[in-house]
Amino acid sequence: MDSVLMPERIDYAGKLIEIIRGRWKAKSGRKANFSDILNDILLDPREKDLIAEQILAILFSTKFVSLFTESEIGSNKGFFSDASARLSFKFLPPVDEPGELRTHFDQLFCDKKDYHWVQAIPDEKWSESLQNLFREISPTVGKYIRKEVLNSILILAQRAATLGVDPEVVSKIPKADDLDSPFLGLNREVMLYVENTLNSTDYTETDQDNDYKHILVMISQCKRQVSYIYKHKDVFGISLQLTYLVRQLEQYLRRLAQLLEALQTTDIERKWLTIVTLLKEFVYAENTRYSLRKHFSTNLQLLAFKVIENTSKTGEHYIASDKSAYWKLFTRALGGGVIVSFLCADKTRLYFQHLPIFWEAFFYSVNYSVGFMLIHILGFTLATKQPAMTASTIAANLSNNGENPDWLNSTTALLIRLIRSQFISLVGNAIIAFPVAYGLDWLYYKYLGHHIADPAKAIRLITELNLWESLALPHAALAGFYLMVSGLISGYYENKWIYNKYTLRVRSHRKLIRLFGQKKLDRIAGYFERNFGGLAGNLFLGIFLGSTSAIGFTFGLPLDIRHVTFASGNFGLAVAGLDNYVSTDLWINSIIGIAGIGIMNVLVSFGLSIAFALKSRNARMSEVKSLIGNLSWQFFHHGLAFFFPVKNVVETQEEMQEA
């Protein structure tokens, strides 16, 4: 096999890749009949031998470690550092290392869309073609490949052990830094396995197989430790740094198991299928190595996972499961609508102060924030905030469908309850805001002699509700976006409170103990543990809503917000300000406008929130399509259940299963 050492030769492997790439582009990316392309090309035995010889020559003269231990394994540089590095490499690529297999791999699969056709060929076809291509491998080359794979296995185990005893991870896993830590145990077992395989003459295949099985057990124990972090994240929280570490740790363990299986399994088909899986992963990873889109997508998923998880348990309180809870939501919505009516009156009063733009935005924000926080403290609801808090509850059902075989019906039932809960909350907010705002203006006029809104302002308030003559719908969409962001902020700060153990820190604070006493301080700490995220989300929502028009004015942009409850309250102020001289057409247009604003608030808030939630949990599109189909069928056959808590087939089945 001396010929494999010859570096200078025609690039047969590169030509093969070019042919396949060309045929794929000629088919415009269609997968039909494309799976047979390898067999069609590799018909000439002499050409096939030359391709195999060239690839083996590359393998024999390069190092595998960089490709095997870094490709498709997340970086720990940080978001901005990694993004800037990727951007710089796009314009000025790094120097290629000729002694690295990764360099030759990049040269073969040089087109950034090669992973499309590589993935389009089924695993079985790849396995069959590769077995046909590499029928004979000389002992010298085989021994070298085995040594490089073992080196990669050793490095992966060491890196997994390093992450496994990182302080961020250790603080969340019991006994993770002890000598019996599975991560340290895995490293020890892999070191013995590699050492014996390379150097021990009396290391039999039976001994090797036993050690391999023991390593798999250790990998399984490590994975259980990682699962422990995920399952208890609601108890001790999770930081973005910890999320990075845990995901990277998972990738190291997975790659380690793949290389061990490719090296150790005696099942030829299974061995080659594992190699094919690695090939596809490597091609995708190297093609997207400097992709900013992939970087942002991956980090968005990690960020969503971090901030959205804690809203799922909070979201359950916004979903009515029976008639009693349904009407309780209605009552809470009435309370929220009353407070919003006062906010509408106060904002209109502030408008007539003609403050400088900064101070106007500041006091608008204070008005909104204090009102929203008061709604939260009193246990009332602002209807359109519900979707942001409940989206991750829906996503949790989708991501747990492996544990729940009837996930489709249970998630459909949950969505039906959410929709009718949202409906009754919207009704409660809207129907009370109008009369209360109207009554406030009546009292204001009785004691001060003038309306809260003069006729010019009243006409403007009504015009802003007209869907055809104003930007009501875009402004409602912007408000829906803010509602979604406030939900994420709630999850972020709730997680932050738990992760940083603020409850314990407050309870043990000596000065606070002397000031409040231990029992009272315990109650304060417990209250903030339950409500800190909600208060923070409402604070920021008020700032967003109060400052948007000022920002739009500053930059000359038509920015503003429309919220259904405020729209109803403003309409009440406007009707009172015009002394009830409002035409029928204006009544109809305003009611349609209020309804349209509410629908847009909910659609945008819920749509964006559930997109984030699904992103964080890697829910499949097929699941979403099945859910939409089942939900549509239920709407056409049991439409009343979407608005009122009547029994329907899905919910009845779910109750029977729970019983």
TrEMBL record:
Matches recorded under Gene3D superfamilies: Glycerol uptake facilitator protein (1.20.1080.10)
- GO-annotated cellular components: membrane
Where does it mainly reside? membrane
Protein's membrane topology: Multi-pass membrane protein
> What InterPro entries would the database entry show?
Aquaporin-like, Site-sp_rcmbase
Q: Which residues form the signal peptide?
A: none
Keyword set, alphabetical order: Membrane, Transmembrane, Transmembrane helix
User: Localized where?
Assistant: Membrane
Transmembrane segments in this chain: where? 361-383, 423-445, 472-493, 539-559, 586-614
Keyword Transmembrane included in the entry's annotation:
yes
> Which domain of life does this protein belong to?
Bacteria
- Give the protein's recorded name: Site-specific recombinase
Native organism is Dyadobacter pollutisoli
